[in-house]
Amino acid sequence: MSCWMPGCPALSMCRGLAALPITCLERAKYLKTRLGILLHKPELGHKTGSSSKLQLGSRRRDSSREVLEWRESFDQLLKSKSGVNAFHTFLKTEFSEENLDFWLACEDFKKTRSKTKLASKANRIFEEFVQSEAPREVNIDHETREITRKNLSGATSACFNEAQAKTRTLMEKDSYPRFLKSASYQDMSKQAASRGTSKRSHT
Protein backbone atom coordinates (compact mmCIF):
# COMPACT_ATOMS: atom_id res chain seq x y z
CA MET A 1 0.00 0.00 0.00
CA SER A 2 1.43 3.36 -1.01
CA CYS A 3 0.99 6.36 1.29
CA TRP A 4 2.64 9.76 1.46
CA MET A 5 3.25 9.06 5.17
CA PRO A 6 4.10 5.43 5.81
CA GLY A 7 1.92 3.65 8.32
CA CYS A 8 -0.67 6.46 8.53
CA PRO A 9 -4.08 4.89 9.44
CA ALA A 10 -5.74 8.32 9.59
CA LEU A 11 -5.10 8.89 5.89
CA SER A 12 -6.76 5.60 4.97
CA MET A 13 -9.76 6.52 7.09
CA CYS A 14 -10.06 9.95 5.51
CA ARG A 15 -9.92 8.46 2.03
CA GLY A 16 -12.61 5.97 3.01
CA LEU A 17 -14.90 8.72 4.34
CA ALA A 18 -14.33 10.90 1.32
CA ALA A 19 -15.49 8.07 -0.91
CA LEU A 20 -18.87 7.90 0.91
CA PRO A 21 -21.80 9.80 -0.55
CA ILE A 22 -22.89 12.99 1.28
CA THR A 23 -26.20 11.38 2.25
CA CYS A 24 -24.38 8.62 4.14
CA LEU A 25 -22.40 11.16 6.14
CA GLU A 26 -25.57 13.09 6.96
CA ARG A 27 -27.24 9.85 8.02
CA ALA A 28 -24.33 9.04 10.33
CA LYS A 29 -24.59 12.48 11.97
CA TYR A 30 -28.35 12.00 12.42
CA LEU A 31 -27.85 8.58 14.04
CA LYS A 32 -25.21 10.01 16.37
CA THR A 33 -27.61 12.76 17.47
CA ARG A 34 -30.47 10.30 18.01
CA LEU A 35 -28.18 8.02 20.01
CA GLY A 36 -27.22 10.90 22.28
CA ILE A 37 -30.91 11.71 22.89
CA LEU A 38 -31.77 8.08 23.63
CA LEU A 39 -28.90 7.77 26.10
CA HIS A 40 -30.30 10.69 28.08
CA LYS A 41 -33.95 9.67 27.89
CA PRO A 42 -34.07 7.27 30.89
CA GLU A 43 -32.84 10.03 33.19
CA LEU A 44 -35.35 12.52 31.82
CA GLY A 45 -38.12 9.96 31.96
CA HIS A 46 -37.32 9.20 35.57
CA LYS A 47 -37.52 12.88 36.54
CA THR A 48 -40.79 13.39 34.68
CA GLY A 49 -42.28 10.26 36.24
CA SER A 50 -41.40 11.44 39.74
CA SER A 51 -42.93 14.84 39.06
CA SER A 52 -46.13 13.25 37.69
CA LYS A 53 -46.46 11.06 40.79
CA LEU A 54 -46.09 14.07 43.06
CA GLN A 55 -48.70 16.02 41.08
CA LEU A 56 -51.09 13.05 41.12
CA GLY A 57 -50.68 12.67 44.88
CA SER A 58 -51.34 16.39 45.33
CA ARG A 59 -54.49 16.21 43.16
CA ARG A 60 -55.77 13.26 45.21
CA ARG A 61 -55.27 15.17 48.46
CA ASP A 62 -57.00 18.23 47.01
CA SER A 63 -59.95 16.19 45.71
CA SER A 64 -60.29 14.39 49.07
CA ARG A 65 -60.45 17.71 50.88
CA GLU A 66 -62.99 19.01 48.34
CA VAL A 67 -65.32 16.02 48.80
CA LEU A 68 -65.42 16.58 52.55
CA GLU A 69 -66.00 20.33 52.08
CA TRP A 70 -69.17 19.69 50.05
CA ARG A 71 -71.06 18.87 53.24
CA GLU A 72 -70.09 22.16 54.86
CA SER A 73 -72.49 24.19 52.73
CA PHE A 74 -74.34 24.18 49.43
CA ASP A 75 -72.07 27.05 48.31
CA GLN A 76 -69.01 24.86 48.80
CA LEU A 77 -70.58 22.21 46.60
CA LEU A 78 -71.44 24.67 43.83
CA LYS A 79 -67.90 26.14 43.88
CA SER A 80 -66.43 22.73 43.07
CA LYS A 81 -66.56 21.51 39.47
CA SER A 82 -66.38 17.87 40.57
CA GLY A 83 -69.00 18.64 43.25
CA VAL A 84 -71.40 20.02 40.65
CA ASN A 85 -70.80 16.91 38.49
CA ALA A 86 -71.48 14.56 41.43
CA PHE A 87 -74.62 16.51 42.41
CA HIS A 88 -75.84 16.48 38.79
CA THR A 89 -75.42 12.70 38.64
CA PHE A 90 -77.45 12.39 41.85
CA LEU A 91 -80.21 14.70 40.53
CA LYS A 92 -80.53 12.50 37.45
CA THR A 93 -81.53 9.60 39.72
CA GLU A 94 -84.34 11.83 41.04
CA PHE A 95 -85.27 13.12 37.56
CA SER A 96 -84.71 16.71 38.68
CA GLU A 97 -81.41 17.64 36.98
CA GLU A 98 -83.19 20.46 35.11
CA ASN A 99 -82.99 22.59 38.28
CA LEU A 100 -79.19 22.49 38.32
CA ASP A 101 -78.99 22.83 34.52
CA PHE A 102 -81.13 25.98 34.74
CA TRP A 103 -78.95 27.38 37.53
CA LEU A 104 -75.80 26.71 35.48
CA ALA A 105 -77.38 28.22 32.35
CA CYS A 106 -78.14 31.38 34.37
CA GLU A 107 -74.55 31.55 35.63
CA ASP A 108 -73.28 31.31 32.05
CA PHE A 109 -75.89 33.85 30.90
CA LYS A 110 -74.59 36.45 33.39
CA LYS A 111 -71.18 36.33 31.71
CA THR A 112 -72.62 37.34 28.33
CA ARG A 113 -71.49 40.81 27.26
CA SER A 114 -73.07 41.17 23.81
CA LYS A 115 -76.59 42.68 23.99
CA THR A 116 -77.65 40.74 20.89
CA LYS A 117 -76.47 37.45 22.36
CA LEU A 118 -78.01 38.40 25.72
CA ALA A 119 -81.48 38.68 24.18
CA SER A 120 -81.25 35.45 22.16
CA LYS A 121 -79.83 33.49 25.12
CA ALA A 122 -82.53 34.87 27.43
CA ASN A 123 -85.29 33.68 25.09
CA ARG A 124 -83.69 30.27 24.69
CA ILE A 125 -83.33 29.77 28.47
CA PHE A 126 -86.89 30.94 29.07
CA GLU A 127 -88.32 28.59 26.43
CA GLU A 128 -86.31 25.62 27.68
CA PHE A 129 -86.72 26.01 31.46
CA VAL A 130 -89.16 28.73 32.55
CA GLN A 131 -92.26 29.03 30.41
CA SER A 132 -95.27 26.92 31.30
CA GLU A 133 -94.91 23.39 29.89
CA ALA A 134 -91.30 24.03 28.83
CA PRO A 135 -89.38 20.88 27.79
CA ARG A 136 -87.35 21.05 31.03
CA GLU A 137 -89.62 23.19 33.17
CA VAL A 138 -88.24 24.13 36.59
CA ASN A 139 -90.40 24.18 39.69
CA ILE A 140 -91.11 27.89 40.29
CA ASP A 141 -94.33 29.70 41.19
CA HIS A 142 -96.56 31.46 38.65
CA GLU A 143 -95.65 34.94 39.90
CA THR A 144 -91.89 34.37 39.45
CA ARG A 145 -92.54 32.95 35.99
CA GLU A 146 -94.48 36.06 34.97
CA ILE A 147 -91.87 38.44 36.39
CA THR A 148 -89.21 36.59 34.35
CA ARG A 149 -91.38 36.78 31.22
CA LYS A 150 -91.66 40.58 31.60
CA ASN A 151 -87.90 40.86 32.12
CA LEU A 152 -87.31 39.44 28.64
CA SER A 153 -88.65 42.59 26.97
CA GLY A 154 -85.48 44.43 28.05
CA ALA A 155 -83.14 41.54 28.70
CA THR A 156 -80.25 42.28 31.05
CA SER A 157 -77.82 39.94 32.82
CA ALA A 158 -80.14 40.10 35.87
CA CYS A 159 -83.40 39.07 34.19
CA PHE A 160 -83.31 35.50 35.61
CA ASN A 161 -82.12 36.45 39.09
CA GLU A 162 -85.41 35.80 40.87
CA ALA A 163 -86.14 32.52 39.11
CA GLN A 164 -82.55 31.35 39.63
CA ALA A 165 -82.69 32.22 43.35
CA LYS A 166 -85.95 30.28 43.79
CA THR A 167 -84.48 27.24 42.04
CA ARG A 168 -81.30 27.44 44.09
CA THR A 169 -83.28 27.59 47.36
CA LEU A 170 -85.31 24.58 46.27
CA MET A 171 -82.15 22.56 45.58
CA GLU A 172 -80.49 23.68 48.83
CA LYS A 173 -83.49 22.87 51.04
CA ASP A 174 -84.69 19.76 49.24
CA SER A 175 -82.18 17.96 46.99
CA TYR A 176 -78.89 18.89 48.71
CA PRO A 177 -79.69 17.22 52.08
CA ARG A 178 -80.74 14.04 50.25
CA PHE A 179 -77.52 14.15 48.23
CA LEU A 180 -75.47 14.24 51.44
CA LYS A 181 -77.39 11.22 52.76
CA SER A 182 -77.13 9.30 49.47
CA ALA A 183 -75.09 6.11 49.24
CA SER A 184 -72.94 7.60 46.48
CA TYR A 185 -71.85 10.61 48.56
CA GLN A 186 -71.43 8.51 51.71
CA ASP A 187 -69.03 6.23 49.80
CA MET A 188 -67.11 9.20 48.38
CA SER A 189 -66.75 10.87 51.79
CA LYS A 190 -65.60 7.62 53.44
CA GLN A 191 -62.92 7.15 50.79
CA ALA A 192 -61.86 10.80 51.15
CA ALA A 193 -61.68 10.50 54.93
CA SER A 194 -59.64 7.27 54.74
CA ARG A 195 -57.18 8.91 52.31
CA GLY A 196 -56.83 11.79 54.76
CA THR A 197 -56.20 9.39 57.66
CA SER A 198 -53.66 7.45 55.59
CA LYS A 199 -51.82 10.68 54.72
CA ARG A 200 -51.62 11.74 58.38
CA SER A 201 -50.31 8.31 59.47
CA HIS A 202 -47.45 8.57 56.95
CA THR A 203 -46.33 12.03 58.06
From TrEMBL:
The keyword Magnesium does not apply. InterPro entries: RGS (IPR016137), RGS_sf (IPR036305), RGS_subdom1/3 (IPR024066), RGS_subdomain_2 (IPR044926). GO terms for cellular component: membrane. It is a lipid-anchor. It is found in: Membrane. Residues 1-19 form the signal peptide. PROSITE patterns: RGS. Residues 73-189 form the RGS domain. Residues 183-196 have a biased composition (Polar residues). Transmembrane segments: none annotated. Keywords: GTPase activation, Lipoprotein, Membrane, Palmitate, Phosphoprotein, Signal, Signal transduction inhibitor. GO terms for biological process: negative regulation of signal transduction. Its main location: membrane. Residues 182-203 are annotated as: Disordered. It comes from the Eukaryota. One of its GO terms (molecular function) is GTPase activator activity. Regulates G protein-coupled receptor signaling cascades. Inhibits signal transduction by increasing the GTPase activity of G protein alpha subunits, thereby driving them into their inactive GDP-bound form. Plays an important role in the phototransduction cascade by regulating the lifetime and effective concentration of activated transducin alpha. May regulate extra and intracellular mitogenic signals. This is Regulator of G-protein signaling 16. The gene is Rgs16.
